Amino acid sequence: MLGYDFSKTVIGASIMVNKRVTRGYLLCILPTLFLLAGLPFTFTTTQGVQGESWIINEDKYFHNFPKDVPVVSGMVQDDFVDGYAVVCGVSDYPGTVNDLEYCDDDCLEVAAMVKNTFKIPEEHMLRFIDDNATKGAIITAITNFSSLMDENDYLFLFFSGHGSCNLSTSIHSWIAESPHPYPDYYSNYFHYSVPGADMMRVHFTRVETEQDVDIVWVGDYHETDYYYDYITGKETDYWSAWVPTDDIYVQLDADFSITKWGFKVDKVEVGYYASPHELIPHNGLEIGIQGGYLDQVLDQVPGKVVAAFDSCHSGGVGSEIAGPNRYIMTASQGDEFSLEDSERNNGLFSYSFLNGFYPSRDYNNDGAVSFEEAFDYIRPTVISRSTQLEYTHHPMEFDDITGETIIQPNAGIISISVGGSKNLSISAYVSGMGLGQMTTAYYNTTSQEYAIQYANNSILPLTRDGFYLLEVDEPAGFDPDAAKVILNNHYRSFTESETRELNWGYTFSALNDADGDTLDDYLEFSLGSNPWENDSDGDGLTDSEEYSYGFHPGVNDMDCDYDMDFMTNQWEIANGFDPQQCNLYTDADGDGLGDGYEHAIGSNILDPDTDGDGMGDYWEFLHSPYVNIFNPNDIFIDADGDTISNLVECQLGMDPGCTDSDHDFMPDLFEYMNGLEGAIDDSNMDLDGDGLSNYFEYNVGTNPSNKDTDGDWLNDLREIEQGTDPGNRDSDGDGFWDGVEFGLGNDPLSKADSPLLHVIAAILLVCIPILFIKLASRNGEKKPFKRPLIPGPRPKHKSRIQKRAPLSPTSYLKRSFVVSSYQQLKPKSRTAFCIKCGGKIMEGKCINCGYTPKGGFI
What we know:
The termini are far apart. The protein contains 18 helices and 32 strands. It is flat. Strand 1 (46-49) and strand 2 (52-57) form a beta hairpin. The chain has seven domains: 79-164 and 276-399, Rossmann fold (3-Layer(aba) Sandwich); 169-274, Jelly Rolls, CATH 2.60.120.290; 409-507, Immunoglobulin-like; 508-578, no CATH class; 595-659, no CATH class; 708-778, no CATH class; 782-858, no CATH class. Helix 4 packs across helix 5 (314-321). By secondary structure, the chain is of the alpha+beta class.
């Protein structure tokens, strides 16, 4: 059970009535704190393809570089070093009172620096801004990247947003009061000091001043231009806002007229910052990411962790996660706030961090700016600038990585000593990401001999981690008069290089091109290639071509993959790809699956549906192993046994490996048969508009696409309300549909209340009066002539009598016969009858009733 004590909660500094806050400098919120009791989050799906480790995360897929891919000889590292990054910034918190200004900008700019300066590729970086930067998203990203790393890799973590901590408090008795009443022009202050306190606030038993004119100020100094709270008018039993000070001031200022009772303070609450400290993601205003919990998450990371936090109290988080193989840099100490800088449109610390890795910060001239060197610039810069903004905070560093902390690929040669027989002892370093490679090219210009040599001993680290001592023997068989030492650190499409030249009596000329490959002899010597052979390494590419690609002309690196896109250099060149450009996420066929990944798993880079089965490669990749990119017959398979084939599931966007693709607790088959969305959670929707949710109808067995499932003229919602069976037209079995009974006012659940008697009574009430009237009207009347079916003589020709075309089934008219040419018969053959009584017309008058028609006959 969680315990909570309001008296030990730090009140958010950003909601204090403080001119410093209103200027937008403070980058902190100290919300209500609870103890973190388990952070729920969902791990993203991990897919296995050809034995490799794949992770799918929000439309990005990541892969652990297969480190057993062939690499060139001369490695000076045991393993390839990779890098990953999680970069977060939250400016827009729920509501408006907690919003910040520039944290989203910090995130975007740091992400760009991670890509361009640290060289971590975009496909190895997840960026979370505002409402995407949730606890679950951040923790899941760290966890998933951890599964791709080994002990040599780097994880960089950056967060810009609110920070918080706990507050341990105690109450001190203190009486401070104005005269009662206070006089005109009264102005006096009182203060209470507790050295070492972090926060203080005062309790007023009573305040009564002239409203909006006479004011009681509370702050950290008796100058009212800067205050944290003020009271005017009437208040009783009132606690002031927290003031970040160890000496709190209370001051009353009155004007020249209308005085009141004044004020009285009876106690002071003193607070000290304490663990746990927190980073506050978008959904963490109540419970953030506590340092202790983050420490447990980072324990899963097998490699090195490098982190930078720009938030209030971030030094406390840094101290709680510090440990072996971790470097942490924070904007402030655990008991300090962190500021935003409105003039620079960044967090104050973030701005200095972005400027901390300029080449000029490389104080030891090793070719790379380490985090330690950057901190030597960042700390004094932040202290100076924050002091100008009238709140000083001090960046902190927790460095538990041996040697310098460098992420970007780096390589350098410190010194070379020549021993007997021109053997070499080379002191060098390789740091950051990538794979180090050292080659030494020996030359005998007299005999035009050339040889490549590598280190003949295991790596011997010097006193400082990352420095190596390599022994290289001269080649057997000739006496070299020149040598070229080349050290490279390859990381994807980036290569950091350093070279050294050794000459024993000969210098190559830039004016000669002995092998005619367009590379002059001195350039070939600089590259470590053979100036007397246009294909120094015999790999099929001329030295000139290798030079244009950035390869080592003297080393056969055709089986290498420097840009780490799962395509060897040889394959990329043969198929028209750039071997120095990472093609993991280029997508030649537009199927959503990167070219590098398609090549790695063997699918067709130029065909979005490799097996031509109508299910795209990317969809089949995402849903492996239930479907297979290379099996055209898996369209007929029903992998999850829900009676829906894989092809139909693909067309509808459903999951072929799950019977409830959208996890809305309605099976795919039910949704498919009833016209629902099997790929979208539509459980709370109402497809047929009958007032019942789709999920409710699934549960009770009604049709979510038909308002009246049983067709009894009573819709499903009304049946549920009335308690009738929505799947049975006649719930009580009395022969009448539920809708009929409900419409007639009968009980559709009771046979005893059948509408049969009502129907009989209604018939009798209608029919008896009609029969009585009919009989009465015929009393004493003469029976009229019976009207013939067809008046007059019937035509003799059958062709003149035609059958009328049958009417449509929806018509209510009867079929009949007509005389098609009756009006064309001669008048003498026509007999007229009275339209009143049916009597015969003679000489223009009815012989029966005397009616004289005005025209026409029947």
